[in-house]
Specification:
The chain is of the alpha/beta class. Helix content is 34%, strand content 19%. It has one domain: Ribonuclease H-like superfamily/Ribonuclease H (Nucleotidyltransferase, domain 5, 2-Layer Sandwich).
């Protein structure tokens, strides 16, 4: 038997992975809340104990901190974003500068867009591929 063959088997190693790793992005957040990534996911067939079918996840790119909000309906997205913005200002004394999302219907909503413009928050598409992986890990948890 070839002992070296059994010490490291690339096929076995890759068999445990769900997909190839994402390339790292050149874009970096320079301070907390300078860039957040938002994702709305659901409708889950089985509601949470509180009757929620949707989840809004917000990731601070700088710290990798993740907030997850349970929603009974997608319409609650705007309220949760406004409350999150207020929490960041109150608790951290900082302003959100950029929001990255998949530009889903709830993030392109007129009320959301007006709120972002009023608060000088720039929107951008999800060019930071590794963030989708980070949010994906949240969904698996």
């Amino acid at each position: 038997m070839n002992k070296e063959f059994y010490e490291y088997c690339d096929v076995c190693h890759r068999g445990g992975q769900t997909r190839s790793t994402f390339p790292l992005s050149d874009s970096r957040a320079k301070r907390p809340f300078s860039l957040i990534h938002c994702d709305l996911w659901g409708r889950y067939h089985i509601p949470s104990l509180s009757g929620c079918h949707y989840f809004l996840s917000i990731v601070d790119v700088y710290s990798s901190a993740i907030w997850v909000f349970l929603l009974k309906d997608k319409i609650e997205t705007f309220e949760k974003l406004v409350n999150f913005h207020a929490m960041v200002k109150t608790q951290f004394g900082l302003a959100i500068q950029r929001v990255c999302s998949d530009h889903g219907v709830k993030f392109m909503d007129r009320k959301v867009q007006k709120f972002l413009i009023k608060n000088n928050i720039i929107t951008r598409p999800p060019v930071l591929i590794h963030l989708n992986k980070m949010v994906g890990r949240t969904k698996k948890s």
